[in-house]
Specification:
Blueprint: E1 6-14, E2 17-20, E3 23-27, H1 33-43, H2 56-71, E4 82-88, H3 93-104, H4 113-116, H5 123-132, E5 138-142, H6 148-160, E6 166-175, E7 178-187, E8 192-193, H7 196-203
Parallel strand pairs: 4-5, 4-6
Antiparallel strand pairs: 1-2, 1-7, 1-8, 2-3, 6-7
Helix pairs in contact: 1-2, 2-5
C-alpha cells in the first residue's frame, strides 16, 4: 500500500485559539465555548445560517472544516470527492446530556427534536458534507484517546483503493468545557508526508 500520501493543510481549535497550518489566525480570551465559537464564526465571515442551530460538537467540527477547506480553495457549487474520517472520545455526550434533561424536565415523554437530531456524533459530518457537497465515504470512530495509527491506516486504505481523491480526517472532541479539534486533509500531493509521526506532531502543535 502506498505510504507516500501527503497532508496538504491542517487546522487546530483549542484553548480559545484557532490555528491554520501551525499559525494562529484567531484568539479570544472568552472561556465560554459557545461564545468563543460564535465569535470565531463571525470573524471568519462563515456564511452558513444553519450554524446557529447546530449542537456544540457540530459547530466545532464545522468551523474547523470550513476554515481548512476554504483555505484549499474548494468550490462549493461543485461536488467534491473528499471522504471524511473523524474520531473522538466522548461521542455526542454533551448533546446526550441536554437530550436527557429535555426529557426529565417534561411531565410527558416529549424530547426536543432540535436536540435529539444531534445525539449521534457523525451528524457533524453531514453538516460539512451539505455545505461542500461531499458525497464520498465517511466514518466516525470512538477511541479512548487520539489514535493516529487508525486514522493513518484507514485514510491510506481509502486512497489506495480509489474510493476518494482526498480525505478530511482528525479528532473532534467536546465534553462540557473541554473541547479540541484537529483536522487535516490528505491527498497525493503536499509537503508533509502522511505518517504517524507527522500526524502526532501536528496534533500537538
Amino acid at each position: 500500500m502506498n505510504s507516500q500520501y501527503h497532508i496538504t493543510s491542517f487546522c487546530n481549535i483549542k484553548n480559545n485559539t484557532v490555528s491554520l497550518n501551525g499559525s494562529v489566525i484567531y484568539n479570544d480570551e472568552n472561556n465560554d465555548f459557545l461564545e468563543f465559537i460564535k465569535a470565531a464564526y463571525k470573524s471568519f465571515e462563515t456564511d452558513y445560517a444553519k450554524f446557529f442551530k447546530m449542537d456544540a460538537l457540530s459547530k466545532l467540527a464545522f468551523l474547523a472544516a470550513d476554515i481548512l477547506l476554504k483555505n484549499e480553495g474548494l468550490k462549493q457549487e461543485e461536488e467534491n470527492n473528499i471522504a471524511i474520517v473523524f474520531s473522538n472520545k466522548a461521542s455526542s455526550i454533551d448533546t446526550d446530556r441536554k437530550h436527557q434533561n429535555s426529557i426529565q424536565n417534561k411531565e410527558d415523554y416529549f424530547p426536543s427534536p432540535a436536540i435529539f437530531v444531534y445525539t449521534l456524533p457523525n451528524i457533524c459530518i453531514g453538516e460539512i458534507s451539505i455545505k461542500y457537497k461531499l458525497f464520498s465515504e465517511n466514518s466516525f470512530f470512538i477511541f479512548d484517546a487520539f489514535n493516529a495509527q487508525h486514522l493513518l491506516d484507514y485514510t491510506n486504505s481509502l486512497l489506495a483503493t480509489n474510493k476518494t481523491e482526498k480525505v478530511l480526517c482528525g479528532w473532534v472532541e467536546l465534553d462540557g468545557d473541554h473541547y479540541e479539534a484537529f483536522l487535516y486533509l490528505v491527498t497525493n500531493e503536499g509537503s508533509i508526508t502522511h505518517n504517524k509521526q507527522n500526524i502526532l506532531k501536528l496534533y500537538n502543535t
